[in-house]
């Protein structure tokens, strides 16, 4: 079954934990999702119709093409969430 995917979203989730660890920001599920949502609102969505299996190579191509934008969007979002974290502990 082909499906429609925003592969910008796939790339963000692929790299987000590594970036957050590098810049010392909380990586709990709540913070990761908050940061991903803010970053994805800043990034251009990239919709593709894909069959299972071909996604990975496309994700890698997109990652290389937009890495700088993605890292800067995630970093900016992380600063906001770090200032006002919504996790409870
Ligand atoms: Zn957190």
| Category by helix and strand content | mainly alpha
- Count of DSSP E strands? 2
Uncertain stretches: none
Mean pLDDT: 91
Shape designation = elongated
Bound molecules: zinc ion
Strand content: 5-15%
The profile of the biggest β sheet is:
2 strands, antiparallel
| SSE string, helices as H and strands as E | EHHEH
Radius of gyration: 14 Å
Q: What is the number of domains?
A: 1
Q: Whole-Å distance between the termini?
A: 42 Å
Amount of helix: 55-70%
Tally of helical runs: 3
Largest beta sheet: what is the strand line-up?
1-2
Please outline what is shown here:
The chain is mostly helical and 89 residues long. 66% of the residues lie in helices and 9% in strands. Bound molecules: zinc ion.
SSE layout:
Elements (H helix, E strand, L loop, with lengths): L2 E4 H16 L6 H14 L4 E4 L4 H29 L6
Antiparallel strand pairs: 1-2
Helix pairs in contact: 1-2, 1-3, 2-3
Key words describing this protein structure:
elongated, binds zinc ion, mainly alpha, 2 strands, 3 helices, 89 residues, two-stranded antiparallel ribbon, 66% helix
């Amino acid at each position: 079954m082909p499906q429609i995917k925003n592969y910008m979203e796939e790339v963000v989730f692929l790299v987000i934990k590594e970036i957050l660890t590098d810049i010392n920001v909380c990586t709990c599920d709540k913070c990761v999702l908050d940061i991903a949502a803010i970053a994805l609102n800043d990034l251009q969505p990239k919709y593709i119709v894909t069959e299972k299996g071909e996604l990975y190579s496309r994700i890698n191509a997109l990652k290389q093409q937009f890495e700088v934008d993605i890292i800067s969007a995630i970093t900016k979002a992380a600063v906001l969430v770090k200032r006002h974290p919504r996790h409870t502990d």
